[in-house]
Amino acid sequence: MEAYTGFATVYDRYMDNIPYDDWAQNIKVLFEKYNMPMEIVCDLGCGTGQMTRRLKEMGYDMIGIDVSYDMLMEAMSQEDSDGILYLCQDMRSFELYGTVGAVISLCDSMNYLADTDELLQVCKLANNYLDPKGLFIFDMKTDSYYKKLGTGTIAENREEGSFIWENEYNPDTRDNYYYLTIYEENEEGTFDRFEEEHMQHAFTVDEVKDAIKESGLELLQVLDVSTMEAPTEDSDRLYFIAREVTK
């Protein structure tokens, strides 16, 4: 079952609790802290473009990259998507026409990487396409978050549709699987059913630090997303901020 196909058309509806405005402000603060000029920003795993559009509104020239054609179609259908270049590419092999001031990847897109080899590959690509002193900023859900989520079922019913989320986390492999069943009302008044399977991986902080170092990037900071301070053992989501240093 391919991920983000049937889910793409209803993603924003059911993910309406995500604090996109706060996260966009966090990124702006980090850009300013590390003197990232108002240049081109590449958003890896941009999905429906929620963060991409917010950063465009802040004045950045945006490129959005996602492996899901359906998610990109949703992104491009938005009224405020004009001026954003969207590319349907896999983040593990993405290509740009030139360098950019920053590469970002938010909303746990990097957790979809299966192992440290794939993580290293993305870090190397980001480094390759960054301007001198450019920034690579990404977030990741932690092992602590997935353990709290555990194994169980979440269901939500709304007037226009419903979904069932079956979650399964293996703390030994740090792989998290979730199986989505979506019922969406169609024009005939009946309901279409979509099924998707997603897998995310929890990387340790040391694994991420090693990948950043091996890629040639310099790690600047690791932050708890919710507090913008040093992470704790209970942190659910972390920012990793790295910089290009070799050009």
TrEMBL record:
Signal peptide: none annotated. Gene3D superfamilies: S-adenosyl-L-methionine-dependent methyltransferases, Vaccinia Virus protein VP39. The keyword Transferase applies. One of its GO terms (molecular function) is methyltransferase activity. Residues 41-134 form the Methyltransferase domain. The keyword Transferase applies. It comes from the Bacteria. Keywords: Methyltransferase, Transferase. GO terms for biological process: methylation. This is Methyltransferase domain-containing protein. It comes from Pseudobutyrivibrio ruminis.
